[in-house]
Amino acid sequence: MAVCISIFLVWHYVQRSKDVPAMGEARFILSPAEQQEFSHKGEGGDSESAYKMSLYYDFVALDHPKAIYWLKKAALNGHTLAQYNLGHSYLYEDVVKDKVKAKYWLKKAAQKNYTSAILLLKEFDNHRQPHQNRTHKTAHHSIKEHKG
Fold first, then answer.
1. Per-block average pLDDT, block size 10, for the chain (148 residues)?
2. Most CB atoms closer than 10 Å: which of 66, 138, 145, 148?
3. What's this model's pTM, rounded to 2 decimal places?
4. Total domains, the chain
């Protein structure tokens, strides 16, 4: 009897977990109303809204071109994490690889004392290929480092 209950509980958990996004992506889910609001604000120059849209497209909708579009918007409007992540994308992602643009955006973030950008630039400036580490990208960083 205990085995049957255990099997049922496991089955029930598995069925319920199919409808729940992974914890990482759950933070970036936007309702249709939020998508519309952040899109409108982001197009109007609000860097935080544009950044939220980039996270949504990068982690939830899985639309890389739109994620990069919004990341550029946020970076151009001074969002430090967006500047770092755009530089990181230009450095490592084959779709948008461009070392000149990577260095430009990493410098922008480093000028705001963003530690990860400073460290990555040091590797870059020492003529070493920085170590590829996707965990350096995006929301995996402490927001405490972000000041704008």
1. 43 38 70 98 98 96 96 98 96 88 97 96 78 50 42
2. 138
3. 0.72
4. 1
